[in-house]
Amino acid sequence: MLPILRNAVVGLREVDPTLLESARGMGMGAAAVLWRVRLPLAWPVILAGIRTSTQMTMGIAAIAAFILGPGLGGFIFTGLGQIGGANALDYALVGTIGIVVVALLADALLLLLGRLTTSKGITG
Question: Which residues have C-beta within 8 Å of that of residue 88, sequence separation ≥ 6?
Fold first, then answer.
């Protein structure tokens, strides 16, 4: 949650004050300025925080297997527990590559979401 909150605060604070003044000058209230000006301009920064949190969660989920949590991290710890065994490397590679693939897919989906939801005027 920290990267999302941090990026949301930074994104909302970094909106150009002249744009906010222009919105108020056009008669927008505080809620309209937030929803129609601040959030759309801060969205790419907020989404970057969401992407960062997603990647951090993937790493934490792999480590969760250490305390018998579900997930691909179990393969990694099984492989490490069988070091020297016939399939130890296979277990570790399956878990590691699986986590990397899931993380890359999640990141690609969030990147696509950002491209679909970010105004063309902001991205240039």
Answer: 79, 80, 81, 82
Distance (Å) of CA 34 to CA 7, 12, 54, 86, 111: 16, 9, 25, 59, 23
pLDDT in tens, 86-99: 888 898 899 889 99
CATH code of residue 25: 1.10.3720.10
115, 92 Cβ separation under 8 angstroms: no
DSSP 119: -
Residues 6+ apart with CB under 8 A from 23: 32, 33, 36, 37
**How many domains are contained in the chain?**
1
